[in-house]
From TrEMBL:
The keyword Transport applies. It comes from the Bacteria. It comes from Streptomyces hundungensis. This is Lactose transport system permease protein LacF. Its main location: membrane.
Length: 308
């Protein structure tokens, strides 16, 4: 019976594992192989050069600048997105109180608010990037943001939002937060809905404030969900390719102030004399950085599971 059980399990896992190996593992191995060559992508010849591409990458100032921008995105976008997601989810689910009792409830119309928050998830990233590019348009007549500032008497605050190297990356970060926060509002709302209301009611009867309730009850019980969300948002922040490509000036400008590694990889492979080998080395570097981030995040968030 035991051998029959193993054959049954292997029979179910064989095809999925084979597909995973062909569609996921194999491209990573091919990428590493290409990174060891000087292949241009346009000829069948692949001249083996060993680790030369990695040595050039270490001394490539543009790569380190782009990687620093990815680090800034990693520090800002997940923290702000998850903070807003937790705040809005808490207000929508626990921010109210039932009339005539000490029980907790969501604010009135919370269901409608969740739909509104989730709406950006219905749009593709391309549409979001183009929409916000028009909002940031520096033209006082056509740019929605500058036009709004002018109409309320704040014309002195008008900017060339995506044309100023000191604020262009911040503007793109704002768009990434706006585009993703709604998903985490819904995700955290589902997690909070599973927390028994009696826990909140007992805390309120003991005189706990909303702030203490959030930090002492809600956040600890959602820690696993927050940890998983942090990894997902970190991976999104390490990418940011479409946002920067569609919104930035001259694709990563001005003066490479918004360039990120995935975009630099794209330009290296398809624009800068088709340096596929160098682009592949950048891909391997990003894979290592992303894996290190994911592993550290999951290990640091590991703890004993709280049952409720």
């Amino acid at each position: 019976m035991r051998h029959g059980k193993y054959r049954f399990i292997i029979g179910f896992l064989a095809i999925p594992l084979a597909l995973y190996g062909v569609l996921v593992i194999s491209p990573f191995l091919q990428d590493f192989q290409i990174s060891l060559t000087s292949w241009s992508g346009l000829t069948p010849e692949k001249n083996f050069i060993g680790l030369d591409n990695y040595q050039k990458l270490i001394h490539n100032d543009l790569f380190w600048k782009a990687l620093w921008h990815n680090v800034l995105l990693l520090l800002f976008v997940p923290v702000v997105t998850l903070a807003f997601g937790l705040f809005f989810a808490f207000m929508l689910n626990v921010g109210g109180r039932r009339r005539g009792s000490a029980g907790v409830a969501g604010v009135r119309g919370s269901g409608l608010y969740k739909v509104i928050f989730f709406f950006p998830q219905v749009l593709s990233i391309t549409i979001i990037a183009i929409l916000w590019q028009q909002i940031y348009n520096p033209d006082p007549e056509n740019g929605m943001l500058n036009s709004l500032l002018s109409s309320v008497g704040l014309g002195s605050l008008q900017q060339s939002w995506l044309g100023d190297s000191s604020i262009a990356l911040i503007c793109i970060m704002v768009v990434m937060v706006w585009a993703n926060v709604g998903f985490y509002v819904v995700l955290f709302s589902a997690g909070m809905a599973s927390i028994p209301g009696e826990i909140y009611e007992a805390a309120l009867l003991d005189g706990a404030s909303r702030v203490k309730t959030f930090f002492r009850i809600t956040l600890p019980l959602l820690r696993d969900t927050v940890a998983t969300a942090w990894v997902y948002m970190g991976i999104i922040a390490m990418d940011a390719f479409i946002y920067v490509q569609l919104m930035s000036v001259n694709v990563g400008g001005p003066d490479e102030s918004t360039d990120v590694v995935p975009l630099l990889l794209y330009k290296t492979a398809f624009r800068d004399n088709s340096q596929y080998g160098m682009a592949a080395a950048m891909g391997v570097a990003m894979l290592i950085v992303t894996l290190v981030f994911a592993v550290l995040s999951m290990r640091l968030s590991r703890r004993e599971r709280i049952e409720f």
